[in-house]
Write a structure and sequence with these properties.
Blueprint: H1 4-19, E1 36-39, E2 47-49, E3 52-54, E4 61-64, H2 66-79, H3 84-98, H4 101-121, H5 127-137
Antiparallel strand pairs: 1-4, 2-3
Helix pairs in contact: 2-3, 4-5
């Protein structure tokens, strides 16, 4: 049987494979660049073994910056699940004060670009669809479609 640590790391690897790197997303709470995928502790079928807690479902992971990830996990360890909704609200409010709307919009644009390039490279979206997404989103650099000179 694999160790709990191995299964915990494998669960996080599945999140990256399914959703891409967290750095290609804005932090769910504050809106700056995310750094890590964080388990939101909402999966009714969560797995706890040998001090490791995770979900087998990628749906229960959210992109967070390191600051908010540490604060969210610390609140869970100290107070449990009942406080997490209030903690999420407080972290979102603090993020709104820490980063202005212009910063959050710039992060959204940058992370969308990273996601679009990755998905195109993986073949999950066509070059034509990628170019259309770039144009629709207002990206300044519009990629060429296949066959364009």
């Amino acid at each position: 049987m694999p160790t709990a640590e191995y299964e915990y790391k494998a669960a996080h690897k599945r999140v990256v494979e399914a959703k891409g790197p967290a750095s290609h997303k804005p932090c769910q709470f504050c809106g700056t660049f995310a750094a890590e995928w964080s388990y939101n502790h909402q999966d009714p079928a969560e797995v706890y073994r040998d001090g490791y807690l995770w979900s087998e479902s990628t749906a229960y992971y959210m992109p967070l910056c390191k600051r908010d990830h540490r604060a969210y996990d610390r609140a869970f360890r100290q107070h449990g699940k009942p406080v997490l909704a209030a903690v999420a609200d407080a972290l979102t409010e603090a993020g709104q004060q820490r980063y202005d709307e212009e910063h959050r919009e710039a992060v959204k644009a940058s992370t969308f670009h990273s996601w679009r390039v990755r998905e195109t490279a993986l073949g999950n979206i066509s070059a034509e669809d990628s170019a259309a997404l770039a144009e629709t989103s207002g990206e300044r650099h519009i990629p060429r479609t296949a066959g364009a000179i």
